[in-house]
Amino acid sequence: MSSSAPQHPRPAGGHRLWSVDEHLADVLGAVRPLEPIELQLLDAQGCVLVEDVTVPVALPPFDNSSMDGYAVRTADVQGASEEFPAVLTVVGDVAAGSGELPTVGPGEAARIMTGAPLPPGAEAVVPVEWTDGGTGGGAAAGMTPASAAPEQAGGEVRVHRAAEARAHVRARGSDVQAGDLALAAGTVLGPPQIALLAAIGRGTVRVRPRPRVVVLSTGSELVQPGEPLAAGTIYDSNSFALAAAARDAGAIAYRVGAVADDADTLRSTIEDQLIRADLLVTTGGVSVGAYDVVKEALSSIGSAGSTGPGAGDGDADVEVDATRIDFRKLAMQPGKPQGFGTIGPDHTPLLALPGNPVSSYVSFELFVRPAIRALMGLPESEVRRPSVRAVLKADKALGSPAGRRQFLRGAYDAESGTVSPVGGSGSHLIAALAHADSLMVVPEDVTSVEPGTELEVVLLG
Fold it and tell me: What CA–CA distance (Å, rounded) separates 101 from 78?
């Protein structure tokens, strides 16, 4: 389950900013859907079907009762009422799964349970509430269990209402007929689809597997939640956020957690994780600080590494196992520093995201989530988050840096068609992110957005 190596277009000039669209196209151009495999039904949940599935047998496979009651001939209950009930001889029980069935003749009935096959001779089912339940009294509320009163499979039953032909009978093939298309290739298998596959007898199905995404954050200042904080440390939220986001996108996520700012340690950790990764995501260490070790670590994954054309010109290109990892700057806020490439013998895609929590999450939504969805083999229409147009509802104008596409957290109101800002623009404001359900997109050529302006809104929920 590998992807082909990316072919990165080089920007003219080392300090030129990549656009959001250029970077996303670069990522999606390098990612190929995972190879199909045969999986057991429950293991296939969340996966994309790669073949049309046809129905081998009709569903339901036989006429069966939709009620607990009595299987009868319609002529025998014609005109029945509470004052003048039809009195029928009970010739036996028909339970779900019954093999040998009693034949219902004139003046006869058979007790029948929901899902049980309609016995020969019967034309309809009268619910038990329309009868005395065989007790000789008034209207029955239910049936006495067969184990507690086996004698009630015999005797007489009084029917208080008439029934038309096929009343309360589920016809053979009324759900699907043999030869019908059950599910088309490209279907994402959720619980209802898995139920249908099981109902038509499929024990396995051929799908593209859910991508295995390994998430790790970098930073010596990071502490795992639940542990005490020392001076100068903070809790690692990024690896939890991104692992959860990867699962939400449809992946199997492995959270490695925080790795200290040491290139050798990070390099060793990444190499260890390659065996279980279809996609690697790192967060932190991609800017220009003295302790931004992701670039340093990735320079020698699997080899001594060599500097590619353009190193030292503002974008860092690292040749690794005949592939290249690019560290670049994007014309966006938040999330300006980004890294992307493939590593290891299987050319595993790696996206290196910035370390600020909001920058990291926004970058995931814009670039990593589409990569995961592409690995799953989803159609292009389902790769990206949906977006809508909405009118800005705010107390004052929103500022945006010139030449940058800004993504602001928002609360979208579908009923009114409006969106309101949530929190400020700072890339560290996690609390605001937790209360947002959308991202407001301010184009690169706009520096101020007045209330009442229509904006593109990316829906996160």
Answer: 24
